[in-house]
Amino acid sequence: MNKSLTTSWNHIRRSPYQSFAAIFIMMQTFFVITLFAFIVVGSARVIGYFESLPQVTAFFKDEAKQTDIDSLEAQIKATGKVSQITFVSKQEALARYQKQNKDDAILLDLVTADILPASLEISTNSIQDLSSVSQILKSSSSIDQVVYPKDIVNNLTIWTNALRKIGLAVIGVLVLDAIFLMVIIIGIKVSHKKQEIEIMRLLSATNWYIRWPFLLEGMIYSIVGALLGYAFATGALLSATPFLESFLGNAFLIPDQVNFLAILFAGELATAIILGCLASFLAVLRYLK
Length: 289
Fold this sequence. Notes:
Blueprint: H1 2-14, H2 16-51, E1 55-60, H3 66-78, E2 82-88, H4 90-100, H5 105-110, E3 119-124, H6 130-138, E4 143-147, H7 149-192, H8 194-202, H9 207-248, H10 258-285
Antiparallel strand pairs: 1-3, 1-4, 2-3
Helix pairs in contact: 1-9, 2-7, 2-9, 7-10, 9-10
């Protein structure tokens, strides 16, 4: 094994540009794989967050009367599906707006209580009750708009499914490109050593003895590429964390747990070893039939 590793290192050292190309394509592949894993797991957790919030928000029209509001509130309570209902007046809505934008004087000057709608914030006993409660609210002539997590969840699900399909397609293309390039690079190196291989076979060297240095070389390319791709993708996630926290707020659930990152790293490392062995085996196969 030590001799095989020494031979593999000599192959890499004597052709640095080819080695760089192999590592670079592997780095690109695993960079995309890591980002794809973050997006898939993170989006699933964001969807789960919104699904865990059984709340409907109904915004009243400006002309809605207090009697209409009280009547609708009583109708909703009568369903028995509501765990909590809160009326937010225009003044309370303004107070919330001012608190959220306290550092932006321009936004505070532009908004008054008159242009903000009053609303009802309704928590249901379960997420299954959201649809029926929202239908009652939408049927009221006093309601201008109804917002509840199902709308958000449906949109997020559509986008997530689209991203998964696109991501899988991109990863598939990159994996094929990586294998193809590795086969070419290692194939060139094998062809340059064709005479040495013939001599080794005349000396009764087994096919696996001849293969091992090239298999190890392919694994080295893949492992180094996987390490770099994983490191860059994780660094990109950490750099984007402040923006994601400000954009998603409490729904910011991008995976950052040590266990998840360790499992992902182990999986990518195993995948890198398999890809490196496969590409190297295919490259050597034609010369050792």
